Structures are given as C-alpha cells and as structure tokens.
Amino acid sequence: MLGSAPAYLLSWAAWRLLSAPLPARLYHRVDDRLYCIYQSMVLFFFENYTGVEIVIYGDIPKKKENVIYLSNHQCTADWIIADMLAIRQDALGHVRYVLKDGLKWLPLYGWYFSQHGGVYVKRSAKFDEKAMKMKLLMQAEAGAPEFASKEGLAILKHTLTPRMKASHVAIEAMQDHLDAVYDVTVAYEGTLDAAGQRKPAPSMPEFLCKECPRVHIHFERVDMKEVPIEPMFFRRWLHERFEIKDRLLTGFYESTDADVRCRFPGEGRRSTLSLTKTLPSIVLLGGLTLTLLTTESGRNLYFKTWVYGTLLGWLWMNVSP
C-alpha cells in the first residue's frame, strides 16, 4: 500500500496542475475518483486479502447521502470500517476524515489528506471552529472517564466519553446540507481471552496479519430532524448515543448467554466485498508503480518523490493555517 504512494501522488499532482484553469467542481470530481481508486486498493488488503468476515446489523441506505459518521474508537484499524461501509454505498471517494493532529506529519499522506479535505485537530481546550466549518467531516469519539465524571455524565465502560465540540460545530455548520448521522458501533471478534476478559482490538498490522476473523458492525441511521442543534441538548443527545453503544458492547463482550455473546441484537447479515470493486485498483496502481521501478529514471523519480514530496509536505503543513 505504501509502495504505491509516489505513483498515486504523482498522478494526483498531474491532475491538480492540469485542472488549475478548470472549474473547481471538475477537479473535485476527478480527485474523488482518484481517492476511490486508492482506497479500493487499501480495502483489497484489509478485506479481500485478510478474508475477514464482515457482519452488518441494520440496513445501509442504497443511495448516497451527506452524513456525519459517528463511531466508537478502539484501535488504529477503526478508520478502515468507514471505508468498508462507504464502498458498499458507492461513496468511497467522498469520504473526508477528522484526524489527530500528529498524523499530518505522515510522509506524503499527511499533506495529501489535507488537500483531499481532511481536518487535523488537537485534543485540547483550544479549537479552531473556522477550520472545521470549511470541511466535510467524519467524526469519532474522544475523552476519558474523568471527563464524564466532571461533566456529570454516565461513565461508560466499553467506549470513550464523546466530547461534543467538534461534532457540534460540524453539524451546526452543515445542518442544511446533511441528510443524517450514521451511528456505527464496531466490535472485533477474537478479542476475548480464555478467561472471558476483553483484550485490545487489533492494530492495523495485526489486522493485516489475519488476527481478526470477523468484524461486527451495528448500523443505525439517525435523520437530521432527530438531532438537536442547541449545545446543551446536543451534548445530552450525543452522550445518549454512546450510552447505547456501551450497552451494545457490554452485551457483545459480557453476556453469559452463549447465543448472545459476540454478536449484536437483531439479524446480522454477512457482507462480502466483490473483487471486481478492488482488484482493478490493484492492477492500475501496481502497474504504475512497476512502470516507475523498471527504469533508472523512473526509480530516481520514485525515490525523489518520497524524499522531496515528504519534505515539501511537512513544510506546507508547518506554514499553512
């Protein structure tokens, strides 16, 4: 996946230059398509290669929608679940992420994600609302039991306590353009030890090493009409959504009923990702990368893209607001 980064970034940069005199919406349309190609390749490894079984509880709308994605956060592999759902809705290229500030220093990708509409945020009291209001978001949880206790909220066992500000700014700024909130609860099977105690969820390397046999995804669509905008009521609404998540995860990990343990309530449907949605991306990006690596000039360009592209990206991220 990382090996194809120079070829992908060079392709994107070429389009960025060629599209400069064209309408912005045309640039974004092709940029979304390029991003879809890359993320489809990523999903080939995380889903087709690993053979992980995806079990979905709830109905994912067939049509594309403008939404906020709200999920519990457990490990570095969590973000790929959003991609798994998006590709099943043919919306993979339209995904935008809220990312931890430190990730902007990732070689090549840190800078590119900001160009694709990602937002980097710091977990602190200071918060740049203007930056958030300019972007389309995918929002996850953050917080600790101490924060919940301080705020007089119920302490959650299997999820972190959601901090409301980023979510509220996003929803308030885009409420006229949003259709719904996708409330997603994720559980990784194989994370209980012999004594029935919960172990850490798999990291990305562990996931790719096939250490997670099955992922359970509880999906609920919440219409925007049901989401309160006033801050005080929104805070309560958001925490209640995570209380529901916590109950779902408590049943999943702690139920004494063998028929209920390691599953969510309701009917779970196995969802298989067809190779036709991922293999073409592997062939395309793999072919571009091999083309670069088979000639001396291509290898030179490949390594210079890694080095100088990373340095220029760091410089950009350091000076841009």
For the largest sheet, list the strands in their spatial order. Answer: 5-2-6-7-1-8
Protein structure class:
alpha/beta
What is the number of beta strands?
A: 8
The percent range for strand residues is: 5-15%
Radius of gyration: 21 Å
Shape: globular
What is the terminal separation in angstroms?
A: 29 Å
Describe the structure.
It is a single chain. The protein is an alpha/beta fold. The protein is 46% helix and 13% strand. The chain is built from eleven helices and eight strands. Strand 3 (98-100), helix 4 and strand 4 form a beta-alpha-beta unit. The chain starts with a helix and ends with a helix.
Supply database-style keywords:
6-stranded mixed sheet; 11 helices; 8 strands
Question: In a nutshell, what does this entry contain?
Answer:
With 321 residues, the protein is α/β, with parallel strands linked by helices. The chain has helices spanning 5-18, 24-49, 78-87, 109-115, 129-133, 145-151, 165-174, 204-208, 231-254, 279-293, 296-319; strands at residues 53-57, 67-71, 98-100, 119-121, 139-140, 180-188, 214-223, 268-271.
